[in-house]
Known about the structure:
This protein is of the alpha+beta class. 51% of the residues lie in helices and 7% in strands. The chain has one domain (123-511): CATH 1.10.630.10. The protein is built from 15 helices and ten strands. The strands form four sheets. The chain has a four-stranded mixed beta sheet with strand order 1-2-6-3. Strand 4 (398-400) and strand 5 form a beta hairpin. The longest helix is centred in the first third of the chain and has 39 residues, at 152-190. Residues 119, 145-146, 158, 210, 318-319, 322-323, 326-327, 330, 384-386, 389-390, 413, 449-451, 455, 457-459, 462-463 line the site of protoporphyrin IX containing FE. It is an enzyme of class 1 (oxidoreductase). Keywords: Endoplasmic reticulum, Heme, Iron, Lipid-binding, Membrane, Metal-binding, Microsome, Monooxygenase, Oxidoreductase, Steroid-binding, Steroidogenesis.
Amino acid sequence: MAIEISVVTVGAVILVVLLLLVLSCISDHRDTHGQGGHKQRIQSALLHCLSRFLPRSTSPSLPGPPSFFLIGNMMELTHDHLPIHLTNLAQRYGAIYRLKCGNTTMVILNSSEVIREALVKKWSDFAGRPLSYTADIVSGGGCSISLGDYNKEWRAQRRAVHSALQRCCRQSLHNLIERQALHLRKVLIGYQGSAVDLAEDFTVATSNVITTLALGKEYNKSSSELQQLHSCLNEIVALWGSSWFKCSKLPNPVFSRLLKEVAKRDEMIKNHLSRYKSQAKENKDTITGSLLQGLDKQHNTEHGVLLTETHVHMATVDLLIGATETTAAWLSWTVAFLLHRPEVQTRVYEELCTVLEGRYPKYSDKHRLPFLCSLISEMLRLRPVAPLAVPHRAIRNSSVAGYFIPKDTVIIPNLFGAHHDPAVWSDPYSFRPERFLEGGGGSTHALIPFGGGARLCLGESVAKMELFLFTAYLLRDFQFIPPESEASLPDLRGVASVVLKVKPYTVIASPRPMTNP
Ligand code: HEM
């Protein structure tokens, strides 16, 4: 390996060594006055500085495209479908490579092996989130689960929300999803075979699952409160994503729009929380209610960390954002793929008819419906709806695949890339649910649509139950067919932002024979 040490680097090293010598002489004299601790602190800071300039001869340098003066590799991040572009770069530079963005180094991980090494095996090294002014604004000063940095406070918040979510799910999740799936069925029957875009209906159904769990509230599609909430949260995710991937850490043109949407969001959530406090008793079985109650008792429970109302506020935002866009986008993708492969729909339908003998499925039927489960796995593989997860940050010096990764490096887990890795998946771009059947060659171990480790998706178990029940109900009751008037089937490339979405399309939901109106 060729190690290049620039003139500047050599100069900087000499300067630091000289400073160390001078400090040593001065402080030997001062030691007699009891200032040894101070001396050690300055020396260790200088040594740390020195270590940054020294080449790490035991570790190869990360591959990556040539980096240009000032802009680095910023142009690589402006592609319209970033997950596909980063995956293509992996073919040239390998499963792990770097991109430079100003003074930030990003390391892109493109195989499930390297992603697992960083996120699961070395989770404590890579559990941080990148720090930026924008993230600070969006996350209520770092008080959110998804964008908050890894520290004691964040751990206490995540633990509290996780147990409140588990408790509420145990009580009501299955019934809740069934109710929403049956309501969705009614809505689809109401379309009477006309061609419609179902994206919004999927959003309302999945959103109602989380708003009921979190806030004890269900909405109609026409509810202006729901529409405002969605448009505001979607806008925030899109603006944050675009500013992030354009490497802007500082205020930028989208910033004022972002500020406006964040203010709107906070106003809406604040209103919810104050309504809550006035009806505390009725709402104790919801996530937000139980978190608010927990605030009063926490001095006994949260290891000395005091959570505040801002943590509850931001956790509510996290749950609403995490649970709505993702699951609904996945359902839209699934129907789009099924329009391209009607025989897959027929096979799932036949399996449901044979196994369930006319009744509706339960989550416990999962093991008796292998083809339906293979369809779900294949869709999670082909279209991981959070294709680049959420960026991580190395919170200390570490390594991945033998490469040295310095503290503060930004880590992008390219889940889309890992799911299209030709070393793991045969014919990775084709839709073949059969690969997940026994002997089909697909490995669920290599699937990582929910990330992993300390930052594993908080709603993984909620999402898995939703994907299963919604898909089973929809495919039991409807055959999805493309509208005759439209020559083309849905575009399967999609639009990638933080969430990977299919472009809008219309479809006919034709009731199956056993679907009674
Ligand atoms: C198909 C559905 C879903 C997929 C594919 C998905 C995927 C992901 C991914 C990849 C991450 C980032 C993990 C990382 O940073 O490494 C994430 C984070 C998160 N998800 Fe999900 N998610 C889904 C549904 C949900 C649901 C239903 C909820 C809430 C009930 C949820 C709540 C969250 C939260 C709060 C985080 C932030 C976790 C943290 O930073 O510690 N997600 N999700």
